[in-house]
Request: fold
Amino acid sequence: MKIVSIIGARPQFIKAAVVSKEIKKRVGIEDVLIHTGQHYDENMSKIFFDELEIPHPNYNLEVGSGLHGAQTAAMLERTEQILIKEKPDWVLVYGDTNSTIAGALAAAKLHIKIAHVEAGLRSFNKLMPEEINRITTDRISDLLLVPSQNAMQLLAKENLVENAIFTGDVMFDSILFYQHMAEEKYSLKSITNEDEFYLATVHRAENTDDKERLQNIFTAFSEMDKPVLLPLHPRTKSKLTGIIFNDNIKIIEPVSYLEMILLLKNSSKVLTDSGGLQKEAYFMKKPCITMRDETEWIETLNGNWNFICGANAKLILEKICVNQFDKQKEYYGNGSAGKNIVDALMNI
Ligand code: UD1
Reply:
């Protein structure tokens, strides 16, 4: 059996590492890797491949940045050529980025079966490019690999459940696997001098491309009772002109996945607009403030573990003070999502 896996952005490298490790254990599967080049900076891409020991991509499309249409179109055109040549049994796509929809669309037009890892998530906000990408990818996929029961129910409402399998979440597998490696490889001191801090990330278009929202977030960070450590995505860095903030915000370069796990482990709480980090905070039992107006990972909201605060500085500052939490439940499987995914691909 031949699989072509398509990845391009930071969170996809982490998810693919889990599945690729499982594929390596099996006989009779050829895994061809396409990197679209959506993320291309060394610390946004190469470092993840090295650290997570992901096989070197067979193809790099070197698409780079651009408007959504242009970026997606370039990926689509180049992927199509490769799929015609490789003739895989499956195309495997991950998550909700422009690389996901480009890969899925190229395969669909060539009548190649598509499997979607992290299917069934919805924010119900079509202003997010990610929401368009995931709705469309789920609709044209042949196999939906689903991380949570809530996502299964959402697929049922869209009459897509027939092709869906609950696998658990690859990000949960990942954190279980890489946690110890993070501690062996890095020390906190090698990343930051702060001992007590909140860990923050900001990169979503709805926050970075709206000056008022970005300012509100930076105002909240500036007024917090602990330093806010902020590994900064290049998109956000490029939008900081005119934004006022003080030295309570400790900006550092984007960190690797293992460094991120270590920071998470040592943080007091998390502030983020990322989907992945909300869940990683939950897995590591760190309270989270989500700086968006909705979340796809609604299970994390139970028991005060995560609060939706948008870009409302007052609400962010209020919720960061909550310190009462209920016992957590395991919503995201038992750490065998990678195995379940490869089983599903082999059995269909
Ligand atoms: C993308 C995904 C988002 C995911 C995120 C993870 C889409 C629509 N969005 O957002 O769902 O959560 O990746 O990080 O696919 N840039 C660099 N160097 C890089 C990559 C990006 O400088 O290596 C800058 C460029 O200025 C670029 C901007 O970041 O224009 C945005 O990059 P892009 O890949 O379009 O989207 P992300 O914001 O990273």
About this structure: The two ends are 11 Å apart (CA to CA).
